[in-house]
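Request: Mind sharing a record?
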Amino acid sequence: MTLRIFAVLMMGGAMLAAADQPAKNKKVTPIKISTPTKVQAVTIPADAVQIDPNTYNYTDPQGKKWVYHRTPFGISRVEDKPASPEDAKKAQEDRARLTESTKAVEDGDTIRFEQASPFGNTRWQRKKAELNEMERAVWERELEKRAARDSAPSASSAASASKD
């Protein structure tokens, strides 16, 4: 037992002695500290055209089109590029899927909408005069369904009446 303790103490002492000696072939390179470049704050140009309360369009002297957005974190700038055909097709499919998963119910001069989402059902209501494109498509689909339902019983009763 004493031999083991002696061996452990000798190894510890050898490690301490090795740690105190500097490395002989090691080159020391000085650390280069670069000065940070000053980032210029993005500002909305004076001749930008406002398209929404917080969105502006601007064409720079080189002919590039930019969209500026005022966000809670500052102003962001994005190049305005036309969508590729694949992106446009995917967006159209997403809108169709969203329209199909939304239900609408008339409530006087407002329409109540309900849509399933990963976090539960989302409900909102909008006046008929203020519907956006997606909501209008959902409401027109619901009206078509209602008209088809109303005309189906009258068509079947007319067919049975003609047999008599």
The mean pLDDT is 84.
